[in-house]
Amino acid sequence: MPWIQVALALLQELNEDVRGDCIEQSPSSLIRSSELAEMLGGYTAVIATQLDSECREILAEACWQLNVPLFLVQTNGMIGILRIQYQEHTVVESKPEQELFDMRLSCPFPELQAAAGGIDLASLDDEHHSHTPWVYILVKLVQQFKDQNQGKNPGFGDRSWFESALEALRRNSDEQNFVQAKANLRAALMPVSRILSDEAQEVLQQAREQCSAHPSNAFWVVAKAIAEFMENEGEGMPPLAGKIPDMVSDTTSYLGLQNIYHAKAEADFNAVLQRVHATLKETGQALDIVSAQQVRLMCLNVNALRVGRTGKIADDLKLPLGQLTEKLGSWDAADANSAWVVLFHVCDAFHAAHGHFPGSNPGSYTEDVALVKEQFNKKVTELQIGDAISAWKTAHPETDIDDLLNELCRFGNSQLHPVAAVMGGIVSQEVLKVVTEQFLPLNNFVLYNAIDSTTMSIAPPPS
User: Fold this and answer.
1) How far apart are CA 48 and CA 133, in angstroms?
2) Nearest partner of 342 among 307, 296, 381, judged by Cα
């Protein structure tokens, strides 16, 4: 059965279960029940909408303790917010915008070095000379540079030497393989220490500690094995992904080059797999908790490994407020939305004090405006953001805070279909990221303003 049919079937089943639960218990009573943790333990992610502040706090704490990703969604009139919470979310395929191929040009492995060394460019006819893969050309030049400089590795400052050497080897301007070689010089001059992204290096640096703390976590077991591989068989290098880009070449040469990279990647994968099995045996874990497919996938995407951590929802209003204060003082037009973050907290405080949301009672919404202003002033004092609000007013003189308070009351805690639809789309894509461990989820918090079609995000405080 196609996966989409499976997903739809599960959703239908879940929907029936939820309908059954809701007949017997309201969402608030479910959240307040003693069985909440047991109920949530089997879920991959939890989505909750339009909860009051007390229910949000209870649910958030339960999800935090279970490390179940929580997606809290609220809309009020023309404003929607999404708060994501998880202790830790590992990403195997972060899908960076620009795919970087690990070609090992600055430190070629023996098989690649031997294949490049076996090519005598001077003896080739023009046809084969113009179809020699640029990888071989740069590997030969890297070795030539080292021979002329007492084994010194080339660096970015040596680019002019390589450009001159390429021009000397090039026979005519139609040789596109030399054009590609010049375009890929950066890879040949890249220091070994920069082959891995900073984010991937950070993951591997945490691997031993995290694997010790979570010996049955497949991600950290494989990450630890990769880190150990780099210190031993890899000689400081990560396992090779084995992917090569398209390039000007004859078919035989391209397939031969592809086979060289594939064979090296396969050997590296097997070495990492052995280390995974050794770690599992040492910690008394079953070997089948980490599949060979997962090991291969992480070796293939080692440069795209990421770990995300959000702040705890219970800490959102702890002083100092960090990035919210910075956003309030920002002159960026989109950061004017930071005032709405404060107003959502004001809305919660108003509900706790008066038993209803601003403007939601029958009658004129204007009756609540003065009370909302009172709650706003209390919240500003409580959060110690008086100076930040003054900075906000200076940065955004075209917007009056009193107008926003009036709008909050006019919204009446209504859920407008267009705003809900946009927020539903945002939430669905973020849930898919978490479930599939692909792409990086939005960081911590996002606000959508349908009045002027802008968004604003707030990252968690540094750990």
Assistant:
1) 54
2) 381
Superfamily of domain 3-92+418-458: NAD(P)-binding Rossmann-like Domain (3.40.50.720)
pTM equals 0.82
Q: Which amino acid is at 433?
A: K
* Residue 289 in tokens: 């908790």
Neighbours of 117 (CB within 10 A): 13
Token pair recorded at residue 322:
């960090």
Backbone φ/ψ region at 33: left (φ over 0), alpha (ψ -120 to 50), beta: beta
Per-residue pLDDT averaged across 56-74, rounded?
Answer: 93
d(CA 251, CA 253): 6
422/45 Cα distance (integer angstroms): 20
Q: What span, in angstroms and rounded, lies between the C-alpha atoms of 40 and 42?
A: 6
- Kindly report the number of other CB atoms within 10 A of residue 429's CB atom: 12
What is the number of H-type helices and E-type strands within the chain? 20, 7
Confidence of residue 11 (pLDDT cuts 50, 70, 90): very low
Query: How far is Cα 442 from Cα 455, in angstroms, rounded to an integer?
Result: 12
Which alpha helices (H) appear in 355-400, and where do they start and end? Answer: 369-383, 386-395
7: left (phi over 0), alpha (psi -120 to 50) or beta: alpha
pLDDT digits (tens, 9 = 90+) for 85-133: 999 899 998 887 667 788 999 889 999 999 999 999 999 999 999 999 9
3-state secondary structure of 49: strand
Residue 89 parent element (H or E): strand 89-91
Whether the Cβ atoms of residue 279 and residue 221 lie closer than 8 Å to each other: yes
Residues 6+ away with beta carbon under 8 Å from 393: 401
Q: What percent of the chain has pLDDT over 90?
A: 73
DSSP 145-202: HHHHTTTPPP-GGGHHHHHHHHHHH--STT-HHHHHHHHTHHHHH--GGGSS-HHHHH
| Ranges of each domain in the chain | 3-92+418-458, 110-193, 196-308, 316-413
Alpha-carbon distance 77 to 340, whole Å? 12
